[in-house]
Structure formats: C-alpha cells, structure tokens
UniProtKB/TrEMBL annotation:
InterPro entries in alphabetical order: DHFR-like_dom_sf, RibDG_C
Gene Ontology molecular-function annotations: 5-amino-6-(5-phosphoribosylamino)uracil reductase activity
A Pfam family reported for this protein in Swiss-Prot or TrEMBL: RibD_C
GO BP terms, alphabetized: riboflavin biosynthetic process
Protein name in the entry: Dihydrofolate reductase
Top-level taxon: Bacteria
Residue span, Bacterial bifunctional deaminase-reductase C-terminal domain: 117-168
Length: 199
C-alpha cells in the first residue's frame, strides 16, 4: 500500500492559506528562482535546491486526496490534478455538472469521509505515494493513524490568521522523527516521518 504523505507550504505561524483560500506570499518561492521545474501541466521557477527537493518529493506521487473546498477554489485545476495522476475528492455532494464538463478527468468523488478516500487512493497507488492535502483532512487522518510523512515548505512570513496546516486537529500527541532539511530561497523544506507506535 502506498504511504500517505502530506506536503504544503506553511507560514511560520502555522497557516497554509488566508481564510479566503488565497495564499498571498506563501507561493512566492515557486517563481523566484533560476531553475525550471515541471510537474503535470505546470511550470515553476525555483532555486536549484528547491528543484532537487521537489523532484525527489514528487517523483513517486500517484493519487492525491483533497477536500471539496480546495477542489472548488481551484475548479479542480481544469481536470488535471496539481500533483500526481489522479485525485480523490472528499465531499458531501458530487459535482455532476463539473464531471459532465470534464468527462476524462481522473477525479473520484468520495462521500463517506477521508479514511475511505485514503483507502480508495491506496488501492490504486500500488507502491506509489498517496498525497494528502493539508488542512482539516490532515488533522483527521493524523488522528486516525493514517499519515506516514509530513513535508512542510516553511516560508519566512507570518499570516496572522487563516487555514492551519493541521486544520482544527486537537487529537493525541504525535511524535515525529528528526527532519531532513533543505534550504531553498525564501523557503526551508522540512521532511518528517511520523513515528508509529509499536504493535
């Protein structure tokens, strides 16, 4: 089964977006460098260190799991997942009009929660990574013991308010292994493995 990895850009005070969903200066590092990095239909210009980090982080990503709010904010990226080759969207209501407009989009809409969406994604992932978007779903998945790794692209800015990396997570304590650290330009990439309890 594919391991579940969360990756998101985060402000120093723990936010991944403003309350509106806008990212302000959080994504500036995706366009402040000299090295072109391509993923799916998108092109980024990042520092050499960030490009190498992203190649490693994204090279084995298969399906992604996201919430309906992010899907709506991006309009499903026009039918092409931001990372990976398929998307499982947790929702209470299936967007039939969007599906009709994007009949070939590799999106599956899951109405019975994040745990079910992760299981469905793992079923098609094989040995590839399942990418989980940060926010409330990450908090829920972490509480359920389903998250294997956390990748935090830490940006030197304080947003003051917004959407938290772990959403409203108030679960039990979780210990992480020591991080690997890569310093980019205006971003520090932190990669943690979640310490699992012994059986």
């Amino acid at each position: 089964m594919g391991k579940v990895v969360v990756q998101a850009t985060m402000s120093l005070d723990g936010f991944i977006a403003y309350p509106s969903g806008g990212v302000g200066p959080l994504f500036d590092w995706y366009r402040n460098g000299d090295v072109e990095f391509h993923d799916n239909e998108r092109t980024y210009r990042v520092s050499a260190a960030s490009a190498e980090y992203l190649r490693s982080a994204w090279s084995n990503v298969g399906p992604g799991v996201m919430g309906r709010r992010l899907f709506d904010l991006t309009d499903g990226w026009g039918g092409t997942p931001a990372v990976g080759d398929a998307a499982f969207v947790v929702t209470h209501r299936v967007p039939t009009e969007w599906i009709d407009a994007h009949p070939d989009a590799p999106f599956t809409f899951v109405t019975d929660g994040v745990e079910s969406a992760i299981a469905k994604a793992q079923a098609v992932a094989g040995g590839r990574v399942v990418s989980l978007t940060a926010g409330d779903m990450t908090g829920q998945a972490l509480a359920a013991g389903l998250v294997d790794e956390l990748r935090v692209d830490l940006v030197p800015v304080l947003l003051g308010t917004g959407v938290r990396y772990f959403g409203g997570f108030t679960g039990a304590e979780h210990l992480l292994e020591n991080p690997t650290v890569v310093q980019g330009d205006r971003v520090t990439h932190l990669h943690y493995r979640v310490r699992k309890e012994a059986p």
